[in-house]
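Input/output pair, single chain:
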Amino acid sequence: MTHHNSDYFNLTTGFRSPVLQPLYRYLYFCPLAFMGFNPWHIMVVYAIGQVYGTWVHTQTVKSLGILEYFLVTPSHHRVHHACNIKYLDRNMGMCLIVWDKIFGTFEKEDPQTPVKFGIYPKMPDNKPDTVLFYEWRKIWKDLRQPGLKLSDKINYIFNAPGWRHDGNGKTVKQYQKNYGQKNTSGK
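Output:
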């Protein structure tokens, strides 16, 4: 939320990171160290990735030509930050876009669908505590519903945002399915 809630897309967006990230981020890299990779090498590669991931936060660069086929570019990353239904949960790669092409999450920036930035649906406000804890509060509220089975609680924690045990919620896939049906029917 901290990184994606901005309605603007520029280099300052690239520097916005979750405040609590230092408390857990290292856990993602522990398996590499346990496999024998030098921690210094892990740190250097991570730093290079972070720098690369920061500079793609721009609207100034429109296309990088042939590099668009295999690297994450500003165009790809604009799609990633978009709150348009068409673009939600797309272009997840940080350096290489080939992974999105392999796993079916790639979406090219479409001149017919201008990118709108931010979170969908919008948060009620941009106060710091809302930005930091909005999704956590929503999960906590969902978990406190009376009569939930353990499996429902697990789903509220690990399933897609919008999932509901009673079937009344909408996940990104459901929003996109409705969007696709609406656009193919000519409405």
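The two ends are 32 Å apart (CA to CA). Helices lie at 11-15, 30-34, 39-55, 74-81, 98-103, 128-143, 150-158, 172-184.
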